[in-house]
Every structure is written in C-alpha cells, then in structure tokens.
Write a structure and sequence with these properties.
By secondary structure, the protein is α+β, with helices and mostly antiparallel strands. The protein has helices spanning about 15-25, 45-60; strands at about 5-10, 30-35.
C-alpha cells in the first residue's frame, strides 16, 4: 500500500505535477493527501494526518 502527500504554497497553487508524479509512482488518488499552506508555517495538517494514519496501520500490523 502506498501513500503520498503533496503540498502547494500560495505562490504556486497548482498541485497537478505532484499528484501526477505520485500516481505514476503507483499511489492511488484516494491515498494522496493534499496540503495547501504557505511556506512560513511549520504545521502541516495533511502530513500530520498521514503520519498518524501510518502509525495506526503499522501498530495494527505489529500486534
């Protein structure tokens, strides 16, 4: 299972190239998390969500 995270800033609001690269790498479109955030923020809500999901999946597989 593959997951991806794409991020765009306010300067370049088009994530199409990143999404295209992730789908070509085999990531299903529903498993791509998109964050639209300026570069000045250290918080990345979509990345944080993806990391939490992966943590839960890995914990389930190890037990």
């Amino acid at each position: 299972m593959l997951f991806g995270c794409a991020r765009v800033s306010t300067a370049d609001p088009n994530p199409d190239h990143q999404i295209d690269a992730l789908t070509r790498a085999g990531v299903a479109i529903e498993d791509i998390h998109l964050g639209k955030i300026s570069g000045s923020r250290s918080s990345r809500p979509q990345l944080d969500l993806l990391l939490k999901m992966l943590h839960v999946l890995l914990a389930d597989q190890l037990t």
